[in-house]
Amino acid sequence: MKLAVIPARGGSKRIPRKNIKSFCGKPMIAWSIEVALESDCFDQIIVSTDDAEIAEVAREYGATVPFIRPAELSDDHTGTIPVVRHAIEWFKSQGQSPEQVCCLYATAPFVRAEDILRGLEALTDFDCDYAFPVTSYASPIQRAIRITSAGRVEMFMSEHFNTRSQDLEEAYHDAGQFYWGYASAWLEGKVIFATGSAPVLLPRHRVQDIDTAEDWKRAEWMFKAMQAQEGR
Length: 232
What we know:
The protein is of the alpha/beta class. The chain has helices at 28-39, 52-60, 80-93, 113-125, 183-188, 213-229; strands at 2-7, 22-23, 26-27, 44-48, 100-104, 130-136, 145-147, 153-155, 172-174, 178-182, 197-201. Strands 1, 4, 5, 6, 9, 10 and 11 form a seven-stranded mixed sheet that branches. 35% of the residues are buried.
């Protein structure tokens, strides 16, 4: 059984009601649900939420909400793994056994069906615990600068002040869209950012965290530009 779990709690602080706030004409969560459906690789697509309004929107766009997430898994400090583990354990209690489980974020409007399928392929082909999308940093992280308490600057790695950018190892970061994993890995709480995971490379222009009002505005600009380019 291939299961998609879309975590969407109701208590977003920085962008209130972020998961169902309108993004380019649809509730934000609708984009993730529709792409999961488009991928046509899931036996079930569920939304894990503690919020009745989010549950209603999720059902409207084609997901199921088989349970209401408990309050102890719905605070600001609960991570992704416990939420997915809870969903898997719920299905097992119902006599069903998910094998491959994809945690798909509700605020991932740039995710594409073909990327979800590439993630599943990477998970199975490389026999790993997890597979998830990454993208490269725009600038070398070895030349990163911090602002000190005195209002001055200093390098994190000053030994690379004279190193040419092209001579520095390229670094990547989590694209923040989805994580495929075997149910056993989720249940055991295996670390995602580790050697047991395989990367799915994405171009930088299709990656945007959405945590602030500024992020939201930038994401809408990017999304509309991509839709215009693709003739949508």
